[in-house]
Amino acid sequence: MPDNWTVKQLLEWTTEYFRKGGLDEPVLSAQLLLAKAMGCSKVDLYLRFNQQVNKSVRDKFRQLVRRAYQGEPIAYILGEKEFFSLTIKVNPSVLIPRPETELIVQWVVRKSREMFSDGDKLDILDIGTGSGCIAIALAKNLPVEAKIIACDISDDALSVAEENRSAHNLEDKITFVKSELFENIRPESKFDFIVSNPPYVTERDYQNLPKQIKEYEPACALLGGEDGLDVIRRIIKQAKDYLKPEGWLVFEIGYDQKPAVESLLKEGGYSDVEFEVDSSNIPRVAIAQINN
User: Closest Cα partner for 191 from 153, 130, 157, 235?
Assistant: First the structure.
């Protein structure tokens, strides 16, 4: 990169560089990395379009651009990702939050408004919490008071989740538990909602994932066995023992798993099975209520 480049010139050059390299969202990626290097917000870049960028910032920016071009996810480079309009800290110990997962939060918040009123208190279990993004978004947006237990088998993931809980001042609303699914959840515990973004990628699909995912994000949080349903089967079977009467199980699924998941839920004794679709009209969240 030549000397005396302005913010605008750096953004234009980097956007084209990323575009030629096949990176997703090249414009946004360039903006986020330059804002990181300059220590300002993305919006501030537009107020400084004609400002020349000094050498130390350019050097820092060049290093960030190189990491991104080599395949490292932007969220890991930045150390954070926006989820449900909240800043969530991330590192390679946890999955990067994605828009599909926001559908879980949207549905639970919407259902809570329909079913509960002021004075009610919800009990929620988040299985495989990772960064804690679902639990944190729910705690921030639910219309009534809630006690949320969030579990994960990974100590490193729980450390990230605890950082996010502290960053959003939610120590009094979210409790983290180290647990492999329901293993360390008290048998007498009952929940209004059990939510999860479980591993559901098939072994075949995993081999075809982009480098940014396969080589950087934790495989244990992605791989769901040969058909992608190993963990989902266990959640469907065990969740019944932890749901309150009329409680709901809400979890993310793969792009082609609706028929199989629907059968598993109905065979498992659930009713009112429905699915939330993403922006491409693909079913991405399964929802079911236990038969009593």
Answer: 235
